């Protein structure tokens, strides 16, 4: 649906400078291959911010990443990651996050230790063909469903722009296949389109798995159609 080239649009620090916030986030995210992570690293690089070495890097599927930067534990991820690690999100920060999500942006939260350090909003651009593609599928009698790990507000905002009414959001990577199975158990025949590692089980579960050729090897191997 989107071009897959997200860019940082907003940087909101809490108690530190924008440069420090972006530097912390990029130092952790440089270890990740996720498109959102790459957007943060590119933003830091384009503004000349130093990216420090990170140790003890761990990925938490569907939640975010944690690493140690300059002796400090840094968390970069979503609300769930913050809540599970005792990070309190101030009300005024939550309001900004909600506004970004209603605009269709994805928000990553950053904490240093258990202290909220700020948020970074990232936006991907819809492909020019997405709305017309959805219209044509509907005209053929195909029901279109968006299934995503993104926040529900962000997913709903993007879905509205392209005419998708059925949205399954905030799905953890291991639960995408379960989402496909749930549709099948209602008697629906499901074609699933995906390109990432997290999509492979859903591609295998679907009646027809359609993998994008520029995607990951495991997704391509799991697809019936490439």
Lay out the secondary structure.
Layout: E1 7-13, H1 18-29, H2 35-46, E2 54-60, E3 64-69, E4 72-77, H3 79-84, H4 91-102, E5 106-112, E6 115-123, H5 130-139, E7 145-147, H6 152-162, E8 166-168, H7 176-185, E9 191-194, H8 200-205, E10 208-211, H9 217-222
Parallel strand pairs: 7-8, 9-10
Antiparallel strand pairs: 1-6, 2-3, 3-4, 4-5, 5-6
Helix pairs in contact: 1-2, 4-6
Shape: globular
Radius of gyration: 18 Å
Number of strands: 10
Helical coverage, percent range:
25-40%
Order of helical and strand elements = EHHEEEHHEEHEHEHEHEH
The helix tally amounts to: 9
Question: What is the residue-averaged pLDDT?
Answer: 92
Strands across the major sheet, in which order?
A: 1-6-5-4-3-2
What summary fits the major beta sheet? Answer: 6 strands, antiparallel
Beta-strand residue fraction: 15-25%
Spans where pLDDT lies below 50 across 5 or more residues: none
Our measurement of the CA-to-CA distance between the termini, rounded to an integer number of angstroms, reads 17 Å
Structural class: alpha+beta
